[in-house]
Design brief:
Elements: H1 5-21, H2 25-31, H3 38-63, H4 71-91, H5 94-129, H6 135-151
Helix pairs in contact: 3-5, 4-5, 5-6
């Protein structure tokens, strides 16, 4: 019995449709064409994180005092962001690279601000302490205090 080609094509299409119905939703998502790639979703998270951290940068700029925030986790996040900026291009996920660069830069600015304002606060406390004395003495006391802190 001869089977025509249109019949076999129809049978093949029907079997594909039947097998597609049995696929779980998560697997179906991975096989179908998507609106956004996983790279773009990850990039969206990185970009939102950068904008949220920017609120901290603006707040610190207005307050000019660092209270209740440790620099250690931020330094780790910047280090991780630098790794991601190296790692993402090797995976070919350029959306994540550019948005990760934004997030890492904003984190770096925040750390820079924290260091700057901590030093300013220390300097102000020493100049206030030696306000009625020679500025050279105040600077010398500040340097001694910094050396003492570095030794600890």
């Amino acid at each position: 019995m001869a089977v025509n080609k249109s019949q076999t094509a129809r049978d093949s299409e029907e079997s594909q449709n039947r097998s597609r119905v049995g696929i779980r939703p998560a697997a179906r998502f991975l096989t179908e064409e998507r609106i956004m790639s996983p790279d773009q979703v990850n990039a969206g998270f990185e970009l939102v994180a950068g904008f949220l951290i920017a609120f901290n940068v603006v707040k610190l700029y207005h307050d000019k005092k660092t209270r209740g925030v440790s620099i250690v986790p931020l330094a780790f996040m910047v280090l991780w962001g630098c790794w991601n900026c190296y790692f993402y291009p090797s995976l070919g996920v350029m959306w994540s690279f550019w948005c990760g660069l934004v997030c890492t830069t904003v984190n770096g600015v925040w750390i820079g601000q924290m260091i700057y304002y901590k030093r300013q606060e220390r300097w102000r406390s020493y100049t206030f302490q030696y306000a009625n004395t020679d500025p050279e003495k105040a600077m010398e006391a500040f340097r001694k205090a910094l050396k003492k802190k570095e030794k600890e």
